[in-house]
Each structure stands twice: as C-alpha cells, then as structure tokens.
Amino acid sequence: QSALTQPASVSGSPGQSITISCTGTSSDVGTYNLVSWYQQHPGKAPKLVIYEGSKRPSGVSHRFSGSRSGNTASLTISGLQAEDEADYYCCSYAYSTFYVFATGTKVTVL
Amino acid sequence: QVQLQESGPGLVKTSGTLSLTCAVSGGSISSGYWWSWVRQPPGKGLEWIGEISHSGSTNYNPSLKSRVTISVDKSRNRFSLNLSSVTAADTAVYYCARSGDYCLEYWGQGTLVTVPS
C-alpha cells in the first residue's frame, strides 16, 4: 500500500492546464521534496518528466512543471496536448524508505 | 545514452525463484550510479523492489526484503534480480532502471513474468 496519494483521474481539454497532486507526509514530501514524476503510456516503460520536485530532464517539454506546498507535490501540464494522455506517477525518495510510488493518475484529454 | 534491457524466463512456477538480468549499454555500470528494479502488476501501479551500487551495496523495499537479492556483474556490465518463494501476486512486468538524483532516470522496456495461480 502506497503512502502517497494521487487522484485516480484528471481530465482537460486541449490547450488547457491541469494539475495532479501527490500528498505525502512530513516524513517524505514535506521534508525532503525529493519527488519525481513519471509519464507512462499504455504498454510502455515509464518516462521521467520531473525530478527533485521541480527539475526537468533534458528533452522534456517545458509544458511540464513541478512544485510543492507543505506535504503535497504537484505536477502541472500546461497547453495540454493529445500526446499527454497517459498515466502519471509521483515517487518520493526518503532516506529510510528509499523510493515510494503513489497509485497513479490517469490523464484524459477530452 | 544509457540503455537497459531485461531478460529472463517469462514463466516461473509457484514457490520457485524469479531470476532476471538487466544488461546495461551506452555506459559503464561502474560509473557511480545505483541500479534499480521496479515492477508493475497487470493493470496496477509501480512498486520499487530495490537497488544496487557498482560496489555491491544494496537497498531493498522493506516489504520484499526477505525474498529479494540483487547482484551486480561488473565484468559483464549487468545486474540481476532474484525473488524467491514467488506466488501469483508476483506476476508483473519487471523493469530495470538507473537511479540518479533521487529518481529513476533511464528505464528498460520491461519484461512480463507470470506465476500461474
């Protein structure tokens, strides 16, 4: 069972912005902010889109951004595109538990 | 760019040991990074299994620790996963990945392992 909570689904129209939340505790997200986000299309391997809370790997679209407020991390996708339809997972790193994934959010582009 | 490729049996008998190997190309396994295994049961979310450094130090998911062994073969630039006493609940796609900056940067394509119930 995951210690991190994400909404099961989020949807938006093309061009809109959506935000996916990832709620942890003061023992993980709230203290370390070592949150990473992964995009996974059906039948494919996950792809890193955000690391250390807000950093974007080389080659990842600027439309993806990450932030944190208290014990909740967030992934925002701006200018939503059809190709953004996928499952998104947040993952928190903590020195005692290492990598813990949340249950994932299905993003639907209407 | 680093590439990872999982290999191993696609079917494992109940109570047996699941053994997978991850071949690393485009970079050395001794480059200072950690190397992870992650699994995903059909239709479900991701679960981190554990990781190993090039020197052989390991960290494991506490929920799987009693059944997991991860090892590294620097001469062949690969690392391996052994999961013992498997049941149908261990049926999943198993991914290998390179850990870096507190995240999983590069992933293999994954391999499905089925444990018949």
Summarize the structure.
The complex is a heterodimer of chains A (110) and B (117). Chain A has 110 residues and is mainly β. Chain A has 1 helix and 9 strands.
Question: Can you give a write-up of this model?
Answer:
- Chain A is mostly beta strands and 110 residues long.
- In chain A, 4% of the residues lie in helices and 45% in strands.
- Chain A contains one helix and nine strands.
- In chain A, the strands form two sheets. In chain A, strands 1, 3, 4, 7, 8 and 9 form a six-stranded mixed beta sheet that branches. In chain A, strands 2-6-5 form a three-stranded antiparallel beta sheet, with no helix packed on it.
- The mean pLDDT of chain A is 94.
- Chain B is an all-beta fold and 117 residues long.
- Chain B has strands at residues 3-7, 18-25, 34-40, 47-53, 58-60, 68-73, 78-83, 92-100, 103-107, 111-113.
- The radius of gyration of chain B is 13 Å and the shape is globular.
- In chain B, 37% of the residues are buried.
- The interface between A and B is medium-sized, with 25 and 21 residues.
Topology:
The complex is a heterodimer of chains A (110) and B (117).
Chain A: E1 9-12, E2 18-23, H1 29-32, E3 35-40, E4 47-50, E5 64-69, E6 72-77, E7 86-94, E8 98-101, E9 105-109
Parallel strand pairs in A: 1-9
Antiparallel strand pairs in A: 2-6, 3-4, 3-7, 5-6, 7-8, 7-9
Chain B: E1 3-7, E2 18-25, E3 34-40, E4 47-53, E5 58-60, E6 68-73, E7 78-83, E8 92-100, E9 103-107, E10 111-113
Antiparallel strand pairs in B: 1-2, 2-7, 3-4, 3-8, 4-5, 6-7, 8-9, 8-10
